[in-house]
Design a protein that fits this description.
2 strands, two-stranded antiparallel ribbon, single chain, mainly alpha
């Protein structure tokens, strides 16, 4: 018996001949249709003989999954997803939130990684202040990861673009004029729109600020560049 997530019912007469449950009235909702009731009545004897085996298989399946669930809960409780994963905390508060965990390896993981978790939490705290800040950070983070290896200007000014640096532009939403000035000073902006001279062009910046305008001024009659405060 296959007891995965969802199953089909069929009758197998030989290795090469089988029919689906529709033949004897079985539908997707497993309703007791008239053809199905007739089929069960005609085969009540065979079903009675097979029933103990089916019940044993189902019971063993439940027992196995119950044991697996207990093993998993001993390593990492089901509360972790809702109480910890879905609610970021600073390392100190996180350690207290993990007191209910049984496996000491989980608690040691936090205590041994406080240096890494602290800046990660500060980063999340900053960029989650607004939808605009979140989008701005994700844009520059994605741009850096995808292009730093092939764009010398980005690597040369890593402290301005790499999100691992607190000075990264990813944490400082800028008006368009200020961004153009910064990119021009670093040789990454071309006002002529030529990709051969620089990585950023006016058309590229148009897309960035159109998206920001949509976020900041959604459901509003205001127009113009988004505020950065």
């Amino acid at each position: 018996m296959q007891l995965g997530s969802g199953f089909d019912v069929e009758l197998q007469y030989t290795k090469k001949l089988s029919v689906s449950g529709e033949v004897f009235g079985l539908n997707d909702d497993y309703d007791l249709t008239a053809p199905l009731a007739r089929f069960l009545q005609l085969n009540s004897g065979a079903l009675a003989q097979r029933l103990p085996y089916i019940e044993q298989v189902v019971d063993d399946y439940r027992h196995y999954n119950r044991k697996i669930g207990q093993w998993k809960n001993h390593v990492l409780s089901y509360r972790f997803l809702s109480d910890v994963y879905d609610h970021p905390f600073d390392p100190t508060s996180l350690s207290r939130r993990l007191e209910f965990e049984r496996d000491p390896r989980v608690q040691r993981l936090v205590s041994n990684c406080e240096v890494e978790l602290a800046p990660a939490y500060q980063r999340w705290l900053f960029v989650s202040q607004s939808e605009a800040r979140t989008w701005w950070y994700l844009f520059w983070d994605d741009l850096w990861r995808r292009n730093y290896a092939t764009t010398p200007g980005l690597m040369r000014h890593a402290s301005d673009f790499n999100p691992y640096y607190p000075t990264s532009i990813a944490y400082t939403p800028l008006p368009r004029a200020a961004l153009e000035t910064l990119l021009t000073q670093r040789g990454l902006f071309s006002r002529t729109g030529s990709w051969t001279n620089a990585f950023f062009t006016p058309g590229f910046l148009n897309k960035i600020y159109l998206r920001l305008n949509d976020i900041v001024f959604r459901s509003s009659s205001k127009v113009g560049a988004p505020e950065t405060a």
